[in-house]
Amino acid sequence: MQTPFDLDNTAAYLRWRDHKLNNAITDTNELIVEIKDPRALTQAEHAALLDRCRRSNMVIYAAHTDVDDEDMVRQFGAQFGLNSLDANWLADEDGISRVTVSAEDGQRQAYIPYTDRAIKWHTDGYYNPPDRQICSMILHCVQSAGQGGENRLLDHEIAYLMLRDNNADFIRALSEPDAMTIPERTDENGVARAAQTGPVFSVDPISGALHMRYTARTRSIVWKQDASTLAAVAALEKLLASDLSHIHRTRLEPGMGLLCNNVLHDRSAFSDDPDHPRLLYRARYHERIAGTHCS
Ligand SMILES: [Fe+2]
Fold it and tell me: How many helical (H) and strand (E) elements, i.e. helices and strands, does the chain have?
């Protein structure tokens, strides 16, 4: 399988790089596509959404509908070939999580997504085992926060491109199978999730697509302690803190959502309007958005 993400294939990389930079979206307004009913997209709406995903691995839709439930999210995803929901241990039974501030005492409260705190740059499911990689996701906003709760978004292919242009050794180090380790998580019953060691960047051997696992957290992650890994991690941190035109800043409002091939994202802290607490549905899938090939 020829892939531009092969460090030994410079010609394929340069061809892909040209195409990527000529087509990648840098104007956040261009990322947004208005749609009527997420459950039944028109051909034109579907084409417009897919166009953004092919160019930048993500799209923000703005739906004119007051139907927003888990079923709507599932039906929307199915139109992009997304069917294999990841069974998150905290998700409701159907595999779609209700991301909201948890008032109850319990496990959810211990996890940042269920608080009003900021979440640093990451891709979803960076702690998942290789057979349960999160390749795409949908984040649908039912209710936005009283204040805050913005997201920054960066196509992980652009992050790869910028790092590789800077120094191919950064990619080499971050592709090592022991680059990052997420320690095991324990609860009162013992080990709830085994430690996961793996690369940041990996390439699907069949499709040639690029996958990225990353978290900017400094706790509950152990980077390989050698000079090339630490230099690569520092370069990535610098990139994410920069004002790169490919980093989008946005806030999802009710009816809006993000469909993406698990791009890099973060979330700012927020404060809820007590009568209308922030609520997002989050669906994570094991397949990429159909029709988004890497070259
Ligand atoms: Fe996330």
Answer: 7, 19
pLDDT tens digits along 265-293: 999 999 999 999 999 999 999 999 999 97
Q: How far is the CA of 225 from the centre of ligand 1 (A)?
A: 26
Cα 181 to middle of ligand 1, angstroms:
18
What is the DSSP secondary structure assignment for residue 288, as one 8-state letter? P
* Nearest-angstrom CA–CA distance, 66 and 108: 28
How far, in Å, is the centroid of ligand 1 from the Cα of 122?
Answer: 6
Tell me the CA–centroid distance for residue 2 and ligand 1, in Å.
Answer: 30
**CA-CA-CA-CA dihedral for 127, 132, 135, 141, to nearest 10:** -70
Q: Are 152 and 265 in contact (CB under 8 A)?
A: yes
37-63 tens-digit pLDDT: 999 999 999 999 999 999 999 999 999
How much is the pTM? 0.94
8: left (phi over 0), alpha (psi -120 to 50) or beta: alpha
DSSP 109: G
Share of the chain above pLDDT 90, in %: 78
